[in-house]
Amino acid sequence: MSNNSRQNGSESAARAGGENGITPSANLKPVQVKLVLLGEAAVGKSSLVFRFVNNEFQENKEPTIGAAFLTQKCRLEDKVIKFEIWDTAGQERFHSLAPMYYRNAQAAVVVYDVTKAASLDKAKSWVKELQRQANPNIVIALAGNKIDLVQPNEEGEDDSESGRQVPTEEAKAYALEAGLLFFETSAKKGDGVRDVFTEIAKKIPLEHIISRPRQVNSNSNQINVIQPPGANRSNGGGPSRDCAC
User: Fold this and answer.
1) Which of 32, 77, 75 is closest to 245 using CA atoms?
2) Tag placement on the chain: N or C end, fewer CB within 10 Å?
């Protein structure tokens, strides 16, 4: 398996103050958290990550081949989380590679498309796999993406004619039953994206995080595309921006 990497600017931490408006110490040592994105192809996984890391959206983004690796720091009141994000390919032919990416992950974002009911079924299968095979302390978030494609009716509510195929309450009920965090997002407009990573950061059980070998230079924000033999395409990214957790 080959590795292509591209420098993506300096990594930075968000500046979120504590409850009393006190800015956390700049000397806080980042806690490394491995996070994996899973979901059917074309639900917007890469766009969610790109919005989180660079606060940008790319139209007609090429499908991920294998997996892409990105990093971003998120500063909370009393800790700095450094997310090491594995954005996996959604095509079925890459499914067998998934355990390599979610192994030892402390967090996962399982993404579906609110305008495609079948994508929620696929998301549910990923959740079952994670709960069966992944880290038992993993924090899982379910994210219904592409809410920008949903148009409300005259009563201001979504309906089947609005483009939505997955009702919010249905997905939320499933997430509650399965013990997941739940969000609806728009990678295109940025709605809800920061919330996903902020809430995950808050839920991470730090006492269970085990140090592991470094995978990238800790002083830089990188995108590495992990490709299967014979693949020759890679995903790139623009300049890094502050995380707004």
Assistant:
1) 75
2) N
**What mean pLDDT is reported for the chain?**
79
- What's the pLDDT tens digit per position in 128-156? 999 999 999 999 999 999 999 998 755 65
Q: Say how far apart CA 69 and CA 35 lie, in whole Å.
A: 10
Q: Is residue 125 part of a domain?
A: yes
Between CA 197 and CA 183 the distance in angstroms is 10
Look up the CATH number of the domain holding residue 106.
Answer: 3.40.50.300
pLDDT in tens, 80-115: 999 999 999 999 999 999 999 999 999 999 999 999
CB atoms within 10 A of CB 110: 27
Question: Domain tally for the chain?
Answer: 1
Q: Which two tokens stand for residue 79?
A: 């800790």
Question: How far, in Å, CA of 127 to CA of 143, rounded?
Answer: 12
DSSP string for 47-65: HHHHHHHHS---TTPPPPS
Is the pTM of the predicted complex or chain greater than 0.70?
yes
